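Example A, followed by Example B.
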Amino acid sequence: MLAALMLSVLGVDDEVVAADYHLNASAVERLVAWLNLTRPDLSEEMSRQPKALLSCPPEAMHRFLQALTARYGSVEGYLTGVGVRADTLDGLRQVLLKPT
């Protein structure tokens, strides 16, 4: 979620953010396999999670971003609403984006 918020603040299109989120599905699969081998206690808890949560569907990210926009006006509106200063976001853009 943090990566999605950062990408959105940097101006990355929601389609790309959702596709990036979906790439986590293979990492979650590896995590579940590792838990099965090393932490059966946690593996059992993971098995009770909704399959949609573990598959990181792009639609879930779209809904998340749409909900933030509907409630706060934008992802940036959400972040500033929870205490991230606007100059911090501007600083991230300066450091992470190259001028065109």
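Example B, a separate protein, is given below in the same form.
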Amino acid sequence: MRLLISLLLSLLTLPLLDAQELKVIKLEAPDKAGGAPLMKVFNNRKSDREFSTAKLRPQDLSTLLWAANGINRPDGKRTAPSAVNAQDVDVYVLFQEGAYLYDAKAHALTPVAAGDYRGDVAGRQESVKAAPVILVLVSDLERLSKTPDEGTQRTAAVDVGIVSQNINLVCAGLGLATVPRGSMDQDALRKALKLKPTQLLLINNPVGYPKQ
């Protein structure tokens, strides 16, 4: 009986131990001179829904996140504009091993939760779950207004849309596959990512190498 209780307790503490094991991921410097020329990027941009399961190379992951919403000027402004420079958009990064938050100032990934939450984004679309990385875009309405309203939500949608377009274009330039999506399990993701009531889930972009 004691052995059984001990085993059950150990199983219950596994998620906590896994969460503690996640470490901050310091990203490599982004490649700001690579990729395809701009007009070729526009020509190559398309929505891909089939992904290789191969993990992204560290350099590609770094460049992807920096281009999405990284810092590109000494004053801390971003690659994606936002209303009144509110910088309301957060990029959550989902891997098989856990969920992270992109820290643009440190150019690093901060652990949020251990576990594979890609299924909460994919739903019934198994091809999406196969993507090694899923970027979930969230707007914090409090950064836009102290009293968020319907207009604030429209502004947030615009800001998130610009970040998603950055993702689409950098993927086209790097030869990565992606597709912007609105469907996801809002309740499950809000819980997993520990979101505040003022944080709005809007778009996700699964990313990977094209499936051969």
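On Example B: The helical segments are 2-21, 38-44, 58-69, 118-122, 126-129, 141-144, 150-174, 186-192.
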